[in-house]
Design a protein that fits this description.
The complex is a heterodimer of chains A (about 100) and B (about 425).
Chain A: E1 4-9, E2 14-17, H1 23-29, E3 47-52, E4 55-57, H2 67-71, E5 74-76, E6 80-82, E7 86-90
Parallel strand pairs in A: 1-7
Antiparallel strand pairs in A: 1-2, 3-5, 3-7, 4-6
Chain B: H1 15-39, H2 46-72, H3 77-80, H4 86-93, H5 101-125, H6 133-139, H7 142-157, H8 166-181, H9 236-248, H10 251-263, H11 269-295, H12 309-314, H13 319-346, H14 350-377, H15 382-406, H16 412-428
Helix pairs in contact in B: 1-2, 1-4, 1-5, 1-10, 2-6, 2-7, 2-11, 5-7, 5-8, 9-11, 10-11, 10-13, 11-14, 13-14, 13-15
Classes of the chains: A alpha+beta (about 100), B mainly alpha (about 425).
């Protein structure tokens, strides 16, 4: 099985992810900037929403993400792997004003 | 028939006695730590305000080891956090009802912490080095660690305006007398003391501690109304100084994490352990900035403001709002601090860059703590959490906009400009 492709919204950056490779690791390896910090699924800085594709959250029980968020298609990229090509969108903090 | 003989040394302490003694030590450490944490916001002496968070974290580490050990000694989990001696609990709750910094350290350091040293040494004297080895190994270092805490505080007392006054000495003596009336932390054999018949010593009637809405600052500091210069930096040296000022003023984050440790008195133990670490980390960030600025001759509170504007913007809305604002700000941390690390490294300021790098690492765990415990206070409702973060963030921006209209950052802006010019001339020369 070969690498799969990720496209990030809204900036349209794309990069490849090797089989079994964590998505954030793949991004950093290829110089793609994704805001991150802990690299172990607990700080939620790299929280994204899956727009298209199949993305698995590894060790979800150890990560700071709720079952409801997983159900809504949210994933922490530092602890997620691809099962297909995917399009992901950064989850931004809610804002009332621009 | 011959009587059975004792094999080896006589036993001195059974598991049940050990676990109840350790539970009492845990309770004294935890509640003493909570008193220090809750009063941090009221501490006026700048040096004391910066050293207490380290001690709070050390206290938390000791409490955590003691609590873990109690649970290992056939103790039900739910019981370790409850069922404490109510008289001891009342005594510990009084430690925060002080009038000034001097009374705080006289009561907690000179009275309680000295008694803790005695209790640990008594426990260790009769602890079987093999049977109770898992306790002995960690506890051996406690007396020296607490002695060092006391020494560090004693070094500051000359700088405390109330130190040496009769009222401070009386508070210390009353604290010692009342603790003695409880039989001390442990008895001479390192066991939970039997309740003595001497009754409780009268404790001076003190009103309940009410934390201020505006964190107290050293009276030697020049008055301010917010902390960051009101304009963006125009050159790199200004960026270095501005970020130093920002780092120093992270002390407000120690103050809110400390305050909630005292105010929220019914939280799981992990909350206190994690907030103690958070409280210490923020004081480290403060000292990182202060050290960098001091290297260029800038003096905290004199050449730049030390003012808890973030805290004040929310405090009328309760401590959860302040706590949530801290969490909301930390969410920007990874992107911001990693950018600062890279920028400052590129400019050759590896001192600042290294500070930002460790700060960024600290923020990873703070994000976990902030999300977990704010959500806990909101009953696990993530929509409420998101709304609260928006609310406090907007309130902050409204607040600071108003403050900037009211104050032109003088005399600090002139002092900063002058010193920066001198540094530049010195560098050119």
């Amino acid at each position: 099985m070969g690498s799969r492709l990720v496209r990030l919204l809204p900036d349209q950056q794309s990069f490849e992810v090797a089989p079994g490779e964590l998505i954030l690791d793949a991004a950093l390896r290829q110089g793609v900037k994704i805001a991150h910090s802990c690299r172990n699924g607990t700080c939620r800085t790299c929280l994204h929403r899956v727009i298209e594709g199949d993305v698995a959250q590894e060790d979800a029980e150890l990560c700071l993400i709720s079952p409801e968020e997983l159900e809504q298609g949210k994933r922490l990229l530092c602890m997620s792997v691809l099962r297909s090509d995917a399009v992901l969108e950064k989850v931004l903090p809610a804002r009332r004003r621009s | 028939m011959a009587k059975a003989k004792l094999m080896g040394e006589p036993g001195k302490r059974q598991v049940e006695e050990a676990s109840t003694a350790l539970k009492r030590l845990f309770w004294v450490e935890k509640e003493t730590m909570r008193a220090l944490a809750g009063y941090l916001i009221s501490v006026s002496n700048w040096s004391l305000k910066k050293i207490l968070p380290l001690h709070i974290w050390q206290d938390a580490l000791r409490a955590d080891q003691l609590r873990t050990r109690v649970l290992e000694l056939r103790y039900p989990r739910r019981d370790v956090d409850q069922g404490h001696d109510p008289r001891l609990t009342a005594f510990l709750a009084n430690l925060i009802r002080v009038r000034n910094d001097s009374e705080l350290v006289a009561g907690i350091y000179l009275a309680v912490k000295n008694e803790l040293i005695r209790a640990y040494e008594a426990y260790l004297r009769d602890a079987d080095p093999l049977d109770d080895a898992p306790t002995v190994v960690f506890m051996r270092g406690y007396p020296d660690q607490i002695r060092k805490q006391i020494e560090e505080i004693k070094e500051l007392t000359g700088d405390l305006p109330d130190w040496g006054r009769e009222g401070v000495r009386r508070w210390q003596e009353e604290t010692e007398r009342r603790l003695a009336a409880l039989g001390g932390v442990l008895d001479a054999n390192g066991q939970v003391p039997a309740a003595p018949n001497t009754g409780m010593a009268d404790f001076e009637d003190r009103p309940e501690y009410v934390p201020p809405l505006v964190p107290v600052r050293d009276p030697r500091f020049t008055a301010a109304s917010y902390h960051m210069p009101p304009r963006d930096p125009e050159k790199f040296i200004e960026r270095q100084v501005w970020q130093g000022i920002n780092h120093v003023n992270e002390i407000w984050a120690s103050e809110i994490t400390g305050l909630v440790m005292w105010k929220w008195n019914d939280m799981p133990w992990e909350f206190y352990a994690e907030c103690a670490r958070w409280c210490y980390d923020e004081s480290r960030h403060c000292m990182m900035g202060e050290q960098r600025l001091a290297a260029w001759g800038f003096q905290a509170g004199v050449d730049y403001p030390v003012y808890a504007d973030h805290y004040e913007s929310q405090s009328k809305h309760g401590e959860l709002a302040v706590f949530a604002l801290l969490h909301r700000f930390e969410m920007n941390g990874p992107g911001w601090k990693s950018g600062l690390k890279a920028d400052f490294e590129r400019e050759g300021d590896t001192s600042s860059s290294q500070d930002f790098d460790y700060d960024w690492a600290d923020e990873s765990i703070h994000l976990l703590y902030g999300h977990k415990w704010t959500l806990y206070r909101l009953g696990g409702d993530i929509d409420k959490l998101e709304k609260l973060k928006v609310e406090v963030n907007e309130r902050w921006f409204d607040w600071i906009d108003e403050r900037r209209k009211e104050w032109d950052y003088e005399p600090f802006l002139s002092r900063l400009t002058k010193k920066i010019s001198e540094i530049e001339v010195g560098a050119d020369g």
